């Protein structure tokens, strides 16, 4: 007789298999050509099982992007600390962003997402809306630092986009659109430090 915990473990295994299969399908076939049928076949589960976990392809794709972001953090603490220098904390946050850009799976899927957005702006808006349902750690951190009076920020979401823009100019868009290689450690350090220093010069 199965134990009460066995169904839960089986469900987790199937969910993981679906996510892995979806990543492979999106990367190899692109967003438009990928179907829930193909994902189910690659994951060796029924199509109904796929829909039980993810109600649509859009939801599944967004979940994958979040999974990759979470994996890039490797459990590092992102919580604002009042007793630590702002620069040190921001450098850690930016370093996490740079690590994500070095993730081959993330870069491949980002290309897929951009291609899908070009063909269907409506779908792109839906994806962005779903992504924004989970507020990023950087925005949360900036809000906490502003509340503590250490940063003069009226709009943390806007400020977070500004800081990320400084980084993505060198460590995202060239790799996504032009196929340039990921930045070397020395280059990543330079991008992170100059972006943080410029940001703090305005907001601190």
TrEMBL record:
Keywords: DNA-binding, Transcription, Transcription regulation. One of its GO terms (molecular function) is DNA-binding transcription factor activity. It comes from the Bacteria. Residues 35-54 bind DNA. It holds the Pfam family TetR_C_7. Residues 12-72 form the HTH tetR-type domain. InterPro entries: DNA-bd_HTH_TetR-type_CS (IPR023772), Homeodomain-like_sf (IPR009057), HTH-type_TetR-like_transc_reg (IPR050109), HTH_TetR (IPR001647), Tet_transcr_reg_TetR-rel_C_sf (IPR036271), TetR_C_Proteobacteria (IPR039536). This is Transcriptional regulator, TetR family.
């Amino acid at each position: 007789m199965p134990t009460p915990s066995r169904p839960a473990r089986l469900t987790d295994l199937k969910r993981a298999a679906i996510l892995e299969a979806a990543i492979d399908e999106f990367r190899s076939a692109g967003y438009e050509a990928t179907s829930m049928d193909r994902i189910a076949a690659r994951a060796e589960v029924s199509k109904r099982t796929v829909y039980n976990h993810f109600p649509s392809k859009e939801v599944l794709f967004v979940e994958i992007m979040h999974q990759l972001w979470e994996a890039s953090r490797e459990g590092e603490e992102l919580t604002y600390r009042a007793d630590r220098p702002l620069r040190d904390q921001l450098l850690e946050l930016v370093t996490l962003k740079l690590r994500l850009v070095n993730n081959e799976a993330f870069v491949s899927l980002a290309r897929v997402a951009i291609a899908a957005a070009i063909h269907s702006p409506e779908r792109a808006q839906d994806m962005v809306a779903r992504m924004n349902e989970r507020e990023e750690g950087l925005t949360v951190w900036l809000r906490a630092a502003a509340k503590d009076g250490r940063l003069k920020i009226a709009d943390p979401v806007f400020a977070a986009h500004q800081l990320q823009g400084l980084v993505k100019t060198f460590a995202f868009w060239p790799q996504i659109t032009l196929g340039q290689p990921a930045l070397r450690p020395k280059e990543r350090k330079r991008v992170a430090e100059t972006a943080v220093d410029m940001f703090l010069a305005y907001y601190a």
